[in-house]
Specification:
This protein is mainly beta. The protein contains 1 helix and 10 strands, in the order αββββββββββ. It has one domain.
Length: about 140
């Protein structure tokens, strides 16, 4: 029995996942709050869940006005090291506003990894606790 069909499925899944992320960003819905993600190179920060429900596109969150819990995953690459850490973080904010643009900004200092939620004016409105990291 040939292994080609078994090897093809994971390869196609990876291509589809990467092509979905590479597409153009959708237009923001003015009735919802838009949360973009910004990470430090070479790390990757991905949207995972809003209020416990998986999001469709890991590049951003879109939420109704009000109180929400955002879960993110950070894939942290150490320069000069082949090891990657997968880090889980959560930010909670009670005052999301319709039509407002927010940015969740990752920052690392030594072993401490955090993210701050900033409003459109660049003011910090919420922050994660330290991320929970495990070797990837």
């Amino acid at each position: 029995m040939s292994l080609k069909p078994f090897l093809l499925i994971p390869a196609l899944s990876a291509v589809l996942l990467l092509s979905a992320c590479a597409g153009p960003m959708p237009k923001a819905d003015p009735s919802e709050a838009w949360i973009g993600l910004k990470e430090e190179a070479p790390n990757d920060l991905l949207a995972e869940r809003v209020d416990g429900k998986r999001v469709d596109d890991g590049r951003f969150f879109e939420v109704t006005p009000g109180d929400h819990r955002l879960d993110v995953t950070l894939f942290e690459d150490e320069p000069g090291d082949d090891n990657q850490q997968d880090c889980q973080g959560r930010v909670e904010y009670k005052h999301f506003k319709a039509g407002e643009h927010y940015t969740l900004v990752e920052s690392s200092l030594g072993m401490t990894v955090r993210a701050t939620l900033k409003d459109a004016q660049g003011h910090e409105v919420a922050a994660t606790q330290d991320f929970n990291c495990m070797p990837g």
